[in-house]
Specification:
The structure holds two protein chains of two kinds. Among the domains of chain A are: 6-225, Rossmann fold (3-Layer(aba) Sandwich), CATH 3.40.50.300; 229-303, Alpha-Beta Plaits (2-Layer Sandwich); 401-475, no CATH class. Helices cover 32% and strands 25% of the residues of chain A. Chain A has 19 helices and 23 strands. In chain A, the strands form five sheets. Chain A has a six-stranded mixed sheet, sandwiched between helices. In chain A, strands 19-20-21-17-22-23 form a six-stranded mixed sheet, with helices on both faces. In chain A, strands 2-1-4-5 form a four-stranded antiparallel sheet. In chain A, strand 12 (260-266) and strand 13 (269-274) form a beta hairpin. By secondary structure, chain B is mainly α. Chain B has two domains: 20-56 and 185-378, no CATH class; 63-162, abc type-2 transporter like fold, CATH 3.40.1710. Chain B has a four-stranded mixed sheet, with helices on both faces. Classes of the chains: A alpha/beta, B mainly alpha. The interface between A and B is medium-sized, with 37 and 29 residues.
Amino acid sequence: MNTPVLVVRDIHKTFRRDTGEIVQALDGVSFQADRRTLTALVGPDGAGKTTLIRLACGLMTADKGELKVLDTDINLEPQQVQSRIGYMPQRFGLYEDLSVQENLDLYADLHGVTGEERKTRYPQLMEMTALEHFKDRLAGRLSGGMKQKLGLACALVRAPELLVLDEPTVGVDPLSRRELWEIILKLVHEQGLSVLLSTSYLDEAERCGHVVVLHNGKVLAQGRPEEVSKLAMGRTFLADPPAGQKARSLQARLLDDPNVTDAVPEGGQVRLVRKDEAVTVPGMVPTQARFEDGFMVLLRRTVGDRPVGGSMKVDHPPAGHGDEVVVEVHDLLRMFGKFTAVDHVNFDVRRGEIFGLLGPNGAGKTTTFRMLCGLLTVTGGTLKVAGADLRRAGASARQRIGYVAQKFSLYGQLSVAENLGFFASAYGLRGGRKRQRIEWALQQFELKSLARLPSGQLPGGFKQRLAMATSLLHEPETLFLDEPTSGADPLARREFWRRITALAEQGVTVIISTHFMEEAEYCDRVAIMDAGRVLAQGTPAEIRQRAKSEPRRQATMEDAFIAIVEESRRSTPADKARAGGAA
Amino acid sequence: MTLAAEKTKHNALIAKARRVGALVKKEFRQMVRDPSSIAMGVVLPVILILLFGYGLSLDVKNVKVAVVLEAPSPDVTELASGFQLSPYFAAQFLTSMPQAQELLLDRGVDGIVLVRSDVARNMKLGDAQVQIVVNGTDANHARIVQGYAQGAIGQWAARRAAEGRAVNVGPVTVLDRIWFNNANDSHYFLVPGLIVLVMTLIGAFLTSMVMAREWERGTLEALFVTPVRVDEILLGKIIPYFAQGMVGLVLCLFAAKYLFHVPIRGSVWLLAITSMLYLLVALSIGLVISSLTKSQFVASQITLLATFLPAMMLSGFLFDLRSMPTAVRLLTYAMPARYYVALLQTLFLAGDVWGVVLPNAAVLTGMAISLLLLTRLVTQKKLA
């Protein structure tokens, strides 16, 4: 029985979107997954991971190619396969109005697990997921991490021959993410389970036995994760910024260099993957290449083009000096019924700063943003943006801020130029100035060649560009960006941050939320949010110091987050922290 | 060998039953916990019962009419008093037609009874004519008013004839009795119609919503990758909502009998069986729509258009099928509600008339079977 659990041969799949365009989700994908191995599909959103997983579960039919799961052709006998595997979809697929126990019972009944078998299986699952105390709680009231654990328990209720997990850690807080990974690794290493999972977190790929790197429906590479990391071996360095310079300034300069494959700020330094040996930074030291470094080498090889955005120029840089407080939040409170979404939050932001709100989904970031922009009334506390409360202040105060919502909120049927025109008019621009600003946006965001395309048909990264362009039309002094990088691929994220750092250098104040902990390194100061509260704030270096020291590697922002959350949960038990309990 | 095969078959059946049972149990739990499902399954029928029972009535009482007596005389006053004393009219006496016309245009009255100045003379010649003018903007109402007025005049004429003083009042039909609805009470045919609405609401509307919700929320995605089969998923929906539909039926029957005192002249069993047939039809329509649309919003819109509105307008419940234009009338033959309304009205008001019950029940059975098969066909364990 040493045949692979999954054999994928030359699979093709195309979709027709609502907008009418044809999307090639999978374009000749071939790989195989071995027994007792953790196989990961790695790639950014839109790479084709979910499509491939759904094909493997018989939930979709491929246009072309062969797919065998557990030696069974999925096209001929889907039920055969579905009865033998365990599957956890990306979106929580259990019943929110049933309790933990009722969901588990339902799946046990469906899988034919009864009587004696239950008596041995249930305690195992409960111990593994630590859900014992939450048996009677409705699944809809569980936190994101607990929901995923329950999903895992239901998928495992009758020891499946193959466990399939579609992005199990998306939207989960770092603490739960770590716990989920402990469970998954234990299943593979101790119980010899075969697992196929997908992820867009590149650090997770490092823990798998076999990785298949997907990009735009094609396999870029596959093998052990070290083989991908090896691509950047000998080319990866850590460099200190010159005294008085910010790490992100050095990173920006390096990223603009065509001889550099990749550069990101990390722990006050800059991690650099060079393409050419000619690139040197004084005092740089070679370092161990990570999976992400190798991945960037791969991506650059296929995509070719470099991150752009470094040349962004603001026409009229905001006046004023760095000590002026632009945003002031004091004791901010927002309740939704009994549920406290934002719990007595305090922070202030000075002119020209990049201020980051960090936290997992449901931490209260978006609610805070909406209150700051005057879109939502406050339940308590005070806030001032550019010296005024936007909820009460008139249009003049609103003129001074720009807001990019988390969801793409432009008109999909209007072209890029029409969207810009509409928003320019909405901001009160007309005549020559309107034309000039639209021209600026098209040029600075490199949208000229796409100006006549309906914005709904833009590729993901370009939609984000357009959204940012519209928010800057009226030259605001302060820019609010709510989770602008979620769902963006690593290249688009770097390009995006390059624009942000360029804006900040020219005096625009930026307030940004993100659930990527490592993006904190781009910020001047950050506030760590969890369950509606700010648990810590300060410069990235100050935050990082709160992490427990890890052997053999430098503590990351994520380590710090976990340490801070654990500490706060010790002092206030998680259940009492928030009435209602949903996250 | 055969014994072993028999045993596996038996075990497979037990496993199947257990899976269906688990799904039914789950559905009932959700039903109890979800306020919207209770609202639609219990509260809405009750509201409909009260609304149709007390709020809506097709009976016309206290119709405002203007009686124009161009030249009052004892004979004419006798006719006029007939209007004054009738419970159906609130008569107003005038002496000139223009005045009455003005009132009619202002909607101050719904009809005019014109007694000309020469009526007394003509009466002696045995050829008197009385003109009835009704406001036709509401055709239904107009017809009723017209009928009542003709009735009142006809009674007067009959009385005079009996006294040997004949008078010709034109084409008058005097209805001394309205068949099957002796009391001329519209509850008698509104309440059976109400049952159609409640069954459609629970069967098609509620079911399509809950099934579309499972598609929308992705709960089916997780369910599909288990040993569960499509027919089991469908049974897991049909059984609970069938039960809820029967609860709605019982509610309606109680309201009919004890609240509105509508007679049930046919057999209750026949009523139950035909209702089950219609419920199965409605359930399958709901399931087909939700499987095709996979979205709660679209499913609710389509179900409303495809089942609820036809049940109200094209079933013969509110509007008489015979008076519809041919094209629309042909369309009603495709509406399951049409057959169910015919069955209900017969079973409630006339009794077990087999000549009506059998053909209508046969059509419903045929529809139920083919729609259930269609449901099985369009529901696949596939996304998109």
